[in-house]
Amino acid sequence: MVRPRTRLPAVDWLLDPVREWAADLHWVAFVSIPVFTGVVGWLINWSGLWMLFAPLRFHGVRVPGMAELSRVLPRKIQEVPGLLQGGVGWQGIIPARAAKMGSIAVDKAIAKLGTPAEFYQQLEPERIAEHIVAVFRPEVPELVDEVMTREHPRLWRDLPQPVKDAVHHRVQDQLPDVVGRVTTEIGIHIDQLLDPKIMVIDHFQENPELVVRIFRDFGQRELDLMVRFGFVFGFLLGVPVAVVDSIAHQAWLLPVLGIVVGWVTNALGMWLIFEPPEPKRILGITWHGLFPRRQRQAAEVYAQIIAEDVITLERIGDFLLDGPRGDRTRQMLATALRPAIDQAAGPARGALRVAIGGGRFDTIRESVAREAVGRTLTPFKDPTFSAQQAEKIRVLVARRTQELPPRDFVEMMRAAIKEDEWMLYAHGAIMGAAGGFLHLLVFGVQGG
């Protein structure tokens, strides 16, 4: 005869509460909690991405007195886009911090990519000089005529045309040497004349869509994956929430735990994108941030944007002439161009100084030099030529960005949002709490 097995009292002591809990459990409400938190997690990450990138410009309303009030609020609150300017509304976190990302990008990456002199050498000054000569040569007669007509109209009018033509030809013949001297002078002093950091910051601030492109063009797949993971994270975090809620039977519990789930879901999403910067094995699984694992592809996208839109020959020309150090550039170029007038006069230089006076001759020389400065760098602004030279900058930036230490690369990419991530987490917490209240409204309190 088989004797019945006796159950150990300790097992009953452990299982009885579980049986009672299962008997009292409202299974539909219980199962719905992870589903709710999963959907909320998806919505949190989806809307969080929208908050990161949109809108490009501030959208909102100006509130009288808000600017003054915001200055006494905590520093973190002041960082909300628009508050310090007296507005209530929103601007995408990345567009709002475009200038800051530009600054850190220069410090972390572009400054290590090369000095201004290296960038300038990549643009092949010899080819630039050849292009300037080709574009500037046909303009020489008009330039000389304008200056001479303005400074000494009677003398220039009375000169026979062959003499005028001879002056034009003399200046044109000197152009290769003069322009070569100009491009050499720029190269020698480029570190004092060109500031890539100001160029990048100003351009990113004026064109925040470029910063958005950097993320979108290479990372859209990873960003979409983060949204899908929002459901996974939310669902998994919802399981212990459902267990705790089914035991505690407290109305306040779901909204409070929803805050935790929302905050953690967003934090996990950001961690998934950026951390760890280098592969690490944790619990037998290799973890590597979604962005840093694609550093090589990101470098190509980043380099393309920098070479085509930021540090271009066209913008270098603008910066040299019209930037904060433009006066110094103009003075340097005028100094390099002055000897052209003396050489154009040739053997007649002494006679000309006597005929028109030394002061007037010097004025003419200075006028030609000043007029020629702007025209000398005008070919920098030729979009076709600038695009041809951009490839060399792209190759330099891509190679150096690929060589960046992973931690520096991550910091460069995360710079635009690092200090403002708390807004995303707070947004997740608010949505998590809203999800908890919605579940209470639909299902009530478990066991209540």
From TrEMBL:
It comes from the Bacteria. Keywords: Membrane, Transmembrane, Transmembrane helix. The chain crosses the membrane at residues 27-53, 225-244, 250-274, 422-445. PANTHER family: UPF0754 MEMBRANE PROTEIN YHEB (PTHR35791). This is DUF445 domain-containing protein. It comes from Nocardioides marinquilinus. The lineage of its organism: Bacteria, Bacillati, Actinomycetota, Actinomycetes, Propionibacteriales.
